[in-house]
Structure formats: structure tokens, C-alpha cells
Amino acid sequence: MCVSLPVTIFRWAFQPARSANLQHLARCQDRRAGGEPSDGWRGWKPSLQEAETTTQQQSASTVRMNTSFLVVRFQIAGTGRIAYPGEEGTVKEIDISHHVKEGFEKADPSQFELLKVLGQGSYGKVFLVRKTKGSDTGQLYAMKVLKKATLKVRDRVRSKMERDILAEVNHPFIVKLHYAFQTEGKLYLILDFLRGGDLFSRLSKEVMFTEEDVKFYLAELALALDHLHGLGIIYRDLKPENILLDEEGHIKITDFGLSKEAIDHDKRAYSFCGTIEYMAPEVVNRRGHTQSADWWSFGVLMFEMLTGSLPFQGKDRKETMALILKAKLGMPQFLSMEAQSLLRALFKRNPCNRLGAGIDGVEEIKRHPFFVTIDWNKLYRKEIKPPFKPAVGRPEDTFHFDPEFTARTPTDSPGVPPSANAHHLFRGFSFVASSLVQEPSQQDLHKATVHPIVQQLHGNNIHFTDGYEIKEDIGVGSYSVCKRCVHKATEAEYAVKIIDKSKRDPSEEIEILLRYGQHPNIITLKDVYDDGKFVYLVMELMRGGELLDRILRQRYFSEREASDVLRTITKTMDYLHSQGVVHRDLKPSNILYMDESGNPESIRICDFGFAKQLRAENGLLMTPCYTANFVAPEVLKRQGYDAACDIWSLGTLLYTMLAGFTPFANGPDDTPEEILARIGSGKYALSGGNWDSISDAAKDVVSKMLHVDPHQRLTAVQVLKHPWIVNREYLSQNQLSRQDVHLVKGAMAATYFALNRTPQAPRLEPVLSSNLAQRRGMKRLTSTRL
């Protein structure tokens, strides 16, 4: 009789989590849980999918492979049993040469330029590489290099049918293998390079996701699992570490080292493998499992993403397994009824009752009310915008990878072959993805070398001064200094902001610039260096100078021109506010011209050192479309206050542009107390001087942007819809008078000095302080295979 999992309802409580800027660890293939396994798998750290031969054939067998692990079984001739490296007998050749198009050049290590080390373990290394020859010249890949000497295999599982996973697994949400080749001592696998990190990184930083986030990730994941299941493959190692994000925020699952095809007439597998906390009960009790085991793990992942905790976790492996087999599940009350219903349907201890295990398979999951808003066809075509876009810069940037590895010089030694027989084992290992077996056009070759987001500047240089020559100061702040610099290779000029990490954490500023720097009126981040003590942010050089400088020195400046300037800046702030970003330091010195043209379109918003992205109390990064349901009112109130402060700053700038002097300071000698008192009173002149010739619409928009009550202040959207902006072509073009430039700038500086005398924000704690890292024993969960 099938038994359902009992559920206990209780109230869930959270402690505010300390956010940490966790970097993606590329070495998560190094999988040991609780020490060495008991059956002699000492030191085994493969990195490709299993390749098996049948026990019925004595001829060369077809490799069954996917993008992460290679476990090779070969048969002793005439014995019908599996042979392992070192055993006596005839070793059969693994032949996948039928995948290489006739006449097309096979890949080899010389065709790949080593850029950075992404990860390293006893099995070998993972490099970021750039292809230097062929139709994909300039393309970036992740290259896994495996030492043949480490490929020791023991496993009792046989394959009843052969399937070429390498050729079949081609799916938008599964990491793709592009090439495979070998040298005498090593195997090389060329895979997709995913720059967005993994879900573990995001979950560790943000503690938990919204239901909308989870719905999106689970939906894409369901399509990927269904594709594998359709090929007869059980994934068996579903967890956040194995789900990567591309630069747009779509998922790709990786690490197929524990995946298996079903091997008996009931389509069951019997290995005890996976990550303990994610194992289905039938995997734990070793009575055989089917693809239904993946849907249990799917539920564990859903629970963890929604709550920040695992549903079953004891103080050790034994207790965890006991909980999986027998414990009641505590269902958090804050989850929606649809989410609770899906979790109950997935957490059935009898796999025959589990959602997704029926004859309709994944269609059962697609039909569940939790996914009612998902358009599955659009999802597959990647037409649904992901809820989170990773902060990425240049295509070869590795912000989400461990600097312990990325700081190393990338080198690949030849490697020593383990034995002659073992070398023969890998004959015919070469593979070229079918999508690459096409003659390149000149247009394609050009496109392959163009990287639109952040230009390629430093090549293989590691230290900032290797690639740049530092020139004179441009500006000096409390936590940083800005200098002009020259790129040595191109002689191009840039500005570099050098931030003292001991005084300010630059991670938020970098994320914002990477994520939103493509906007035409936000300064573009060109390069990032980190030497441990200082961070170097290389940006566009603003040759046009500060906005206020140019306006005050301009011979003719009219009300119409002021409207054009304000419209450009407000449109930029509307974009940032709509993304949940507030600048919080929008003083005139942080608004600059890119060039000497004076064109409003050349304006750039700079210096995001005080900027913030919308986050809940627990550090969860939010987007505004989810705030109403998932962010505490006081957080929204603070975010709204910060956005209103940005508008107030724009109001101060507009007042100064129109009046020719600042609204709340008479000069640089005014005390902070005097300035703050004037700001608090909300009193400023709108008559006399220039104001006598300025339109009523201008006075109206200024008064509403400078309203003392932030709740009554205009929003960016409302400013853009104000008649003074909409009907700007009818505004006066008469010249406006102004005070001395130095007097006005001094008064403005005094105003912001008074406003910014606030306590310094707390620094972020190290990543190991995060709740998720502590829950997992300060390391990523590792997979077990017995």
C-alpha cells in the first residue's frame, strides 16, 4: 500500500541573515561527504558522465557521455564481466569517432588560449579558455582537464541499453559539451562557460527566494529533467551547486557524474549516490529507484529555495538518512497554498504516488496550480524574462569564481599517462559538437571577437599596473581616489577609481555597475582588478567635466535647456528606481558629461558608492514587481525614502540651474547646522532674480521635487509626466543669470557635506558567517557515491 508523507503545520520564524558576497566555487566537483567512502573510491574525482559498455558485446562500444563526468567501464574479452584499470584482460576501445564530421579538424590543446584558472582539485583543473582557431574563434569556454592517472573506477552497475548521451543531451537548460580530446596523459572537455555563478551562490547571499523566483527556476529545471528522463537518464544529484546561471539569469544544470540510465526491467537503478540531504527515501534504503527519485530532490530544492533551510537534516549522515525515511515534514505557514500543495505532492515516500511519477510524467507537474502562470512554450524558448540577472561584465570576467583560483597563473602541464593500456582505453575520445561543424563566414568570425558589455582590456594581465599606467588625480574621497590612467596596450585613456577595501566594501557598487552600466546615461565599467587591499574600477573618462561646472560657465543657458538636462537625468533615475536601485548621493559632482559637446545625451550618472539595491531584511535581492508580497513594509518605506532623496537631489540641482544659486546654502562658509535647519523648514525663494522670468510650471515642479515630506514629493515617473518636461519645446530660451561658479559650487558642496554626516553603514560579514554556510558546516554539500 502506498503511504503519504505526514505533514505537521507550524509557524516558521526567521532570523535576519547577514548578507555576504559569495563567489562561485568552480571546484564543487570535489565531492566527499564525511570522509572517504568505504569501498575504496579513494581519491576518485571524475568530471565527465559515465561511459559504459554492455556485457553482451566484445567489440568496441559506443560511449554514453554528458558534459560533466566520465566513468569508464570496459569488459574482459569473453568473460562477460566488467574490468577495471589494473585488472588483467583485454581492454576494449571506447570509440565515439562517429560524432566527428569527416574532414573537419579535431580540436587540440593548442587551439585554446588559457585565460584563468576557475577551479582545481586532485582530478585536474578547470580553465577559462578562448578558442583561437576554427569557426568559433574568440569564443570563451570552460575547459576541464582530467588526469588519466586519477580515473580509477569501481561500480557494479551494468548498462542494458547503450545511449549516446553526448549526442542526445542538447537542451537550452543543460550545460553543453562542445569538444572532447586527449593528450597522452590527459583528457580535455570543452564546456559552456556560465558567468552567472550558481544557485548556491545566490541562495547563500540572499538566504531565500520569492515564490516567483522559485517558480521560474523550478519550471526551467522541470523541462531539463524531463529531457533527461526522456532519454532514460536519472539525474540523481539535484542541488543548488549543480544549477548554474547564464548571463541573462536562465539556468543550466551540470555535473552528471552520478547520472545513470535505468538498468533493470523496471527501469530501476540501485547505486547509493547523491548528496544525502537531497536523496529520496528509496535511494537511502537502497531498494532501487527510478526517475521519480529526481522529483523528490526537486521538492527538496524547492523547499530550500523557499525557506533557506533543508527539510531533512540531522547532526550527521546517519540521522539525516533516518529523518528522510521516517520524519514528519514541517510545512512553513508563510508559503502559499499552491506551494504547500506542490511540496506535499513531491514529498511522497512511496515513489509511485509522487507527482511526476505517473504515466504523464512532467505533465503532472506542469498542470499543478503552482505553475498556472507559466507559459511552457515561451519558457522553453527563453522568452520569459528571468527574475534575477547576474552581475556580469566582460565575457571573460570571473567575479562569481573563487579568487583563490582565478588569481593563479593558468598553466597546463603535459601529464603522465598511467599505463599503455589505459591510454588505449581513450582512443577515439575526440568529439566535436554538431553545431560547430560548419564552415565559418567572415561575419561570424567578426562577431565572435566582439564583446559588447565590457571591452577586453587587460588580456592575461593580473595586476592593475601590468595593464595600466596611473596618471594624475581626478578626485579624492573618504574611501577612494579617482585617477586618470592609460591602457598600455591601446594607449586609451580611462578613469580608475581606487577603493580601499578596509574602509568600504565595493561589492554593491560593482554589482550595480555591471548590471546597469549598459544604460546610455550611466557610467560604463570597463575593467575590475582586486589585489586584496584595493579594488580598481576602470571606467570611461568623463572629458566634459561636471554638469554644474559646464552649466555655470556656459555663456548661454536657458530654461528650455534646463528642462532637457533634467529630463535626461530623471529618465536615468526612473530606470534605476524601476529596478529597485537608489543612488543616495546624487549631488552635482556625480553627474558628468562624457564629452565637450554639452549634449544632454552625453550626461553620465557616476559614483555608485552609496547606492543600494532593494533587499528584504534577510538580504534578499528584490525586483520591484515582487515587493508588494515579499518585502517588509519598513524595508519598502526605507527604499521609498531613498528614492525620494534622489528626487530631492534632482530638485536641488534644478533649482540651482534655474536660479543660478543653491536653495539652502548661501556659500561655502555656511555651517551644517544652518543648512540643515533651512532644509528642514522647507523654505527657499521662488521670487526675485531669475525667478521673475521663469515659468510657473518650472516653479511648480521645483516645489514638488523639494517638498519637505518625502511621501508628497514627486516620483521620477511623475517628474517625467510634468508639463514642464512634456511641453519643454515651448519654454523660454532666454539666457539665465548666475552667481560666481566657485561660490555656487562651494555652497552646493556645503549642502551635501551637511546631509552626509551620517554613521557609516555596517560592513558585510565574511561569507562563512551566512546562515546557509553555517547550516552546511561552512562548505558546500558534497555528493556521495557508494
From TrEMBL:
CDD domains, per database record: STKc_RSK3_C, STKc_RSK_N
Protein's GO biological process: intracellular signal transduction; negative regulation of cell cycle; negative regulation of cell population proliferation; positive regulation of apoptotic process
Residue span(s) of domain Protein kinase: 112-371, 468-725
Pfam families assigned to the protein according to its UniProt record, in alphabetical order: Pkinase, Pkinase_C
Reactions catalysed according to its record: L-seryl-[protein] + ATP = O-phospho-L-seryl-[protein] + ADP + H(+); L-threonyl-[protein] + ATP = O-phospho-L-threonyl-[protein] + ADP + H(+)
Keyword field contains Aminoacyl-tRNA synthetase: no
Domain AGC-kinase C-terminal: 372-441
Any one cellular-component term (Gene Ontology): nucleoplasm
Protein name: Ribosomal protein S6 kinase
Source organism: Canis lupus familiaris
